[in-house]
Amino acid sequence: MQQSKERRLKVGIVQHFFSDDIDTNRSRNLAAIQNLADEGAEVIVLSELHDSLYFCQTEDVDLFDLAVELPGEFTDVYAEAARQNGVVLVTSAFERRAPGLYHNTAVVFEKDGSIAGQYRKMHIPDDPGFYEKFYFTPGDMGFEPIDTSAGRLGVLVCWDQWYPEAARLMALRGAEMLIYPTAIGWNPDDPEEEKRRQRDAWITVQRGHAVANGLPVVSVNRVGYEEDPSGNTSGIDFWGSSFVAGPQGEFLLECAENGAEERVVEVDLHRSENVRRWWPFLRDRRIENYDGITRRFLD
Q: Looking at 56, 111, 121, 257, which residue is catalytic?
């Protein structure tokens, strides 16, 4: 069988641990961006909320002071990094949109330093240690891919990765790759078998999005233990395990669960065309029978 022409893209991922020092975190990110660009990365993805520790373990009004205005100093720093290194850069910010109105926002920079687009996290969790509803208003920008010189990127954020609807809508709008900046981990008190189940479920569901939509998936998590400042829980051990999967769910890159890593992997974007010809899931969808998917529950 004749194959479609390859269209290869080098993707860099930054799996880091973080401190409470914003300047230090940014410096380490900037060094990683330069290192990955030197290795040939054309798109570089950072993890979720990489300016600081994961502050959503507690509900504390003073922590709103961590939020940044967009555009502002945050975008200036990463725009310059994208421009200096000639890369498309996917970042994650705690956005202060207006007094009392905050979002968890991904910002994508073009290789000339301009802002290619933004995505505000739509699905917001509220679980022990992940009290994000206290801080973030759900996004209002829809599931719209962001056009860049590296392709049309379907950028989503962390908790969005559990929802097949989000991945599907990005795919239906022409995304060529699904990208998930992430901050997820387990409670250190959980038994080992439960930890394994959680991590494996996280990986499996995203590989499923790759298969169901015939698209590569890039998932970049933070790593390392972060204590709960309130002392009410045992904190979170972020499990790293960042990965890149191809359009049949095949692993192209897997990172460790317990260490910082900066990696580059080559992705053939045109392979999606071949996979969708072999497995034409979009063709065979019975859209006339899917009205119920917009209901909360079907009694």
A: 121
In the annotation, is 56 catalytic? no
Give the amino acid at 296: R
Q: Do residues 18 and 272 touch, judged by C-beta distance below 8 A?
A: no
Determine whether 121 is an active site residue.
yes
Q: How far is CA 149 from CA 34, 81, 207, in A?
A: 19, 16, 25
Number of residues that make up the chain = 299
Q: Could you tell me if 26 and 81 are in contact, meaning their C-beta atoms sit under 8 angstroms apart?
A: no
Q: Which of 10, 42, 48, 56 is catalytic?
A: 48
Residue with tokens 């599907």: 168
Catalytic residue check, 158: yes
Angstrom distance (rounded) from CA 136 to CA 26:
22
Nearest of 220, 209, 282 to residue 247 by alpha carbon: 209
- Find out whether 215 and 247 touch, Cβ atoms under 8 Å: yes
Q: pTM for the complete prediction?
A: 0.96
Question: Which position among 158, 176, 226, 257 bears the catalytic label?
Answer: 158
From first to last of its 299 residues, what are the pLDDT tens digits of the chain?
A: 455 577 999 999 999 999 999 999 999 999 999 999 999 999 999 999 999 999 999 999 999 999 999 999 999 999 999 999 999 999 999 999 999 999 999 999 999 999 999 999 999 999 999 999 999 999 999 999 999 999 999 999 999 999 999 999 999 999 999 999 999 999 999 999 999 999 999 999 999 999 999 999 999 999 999 999 999 999 999 999 999 999 999 999 999 999 999 999 999 999 999 999 999 999 999 999 999 999 999 98
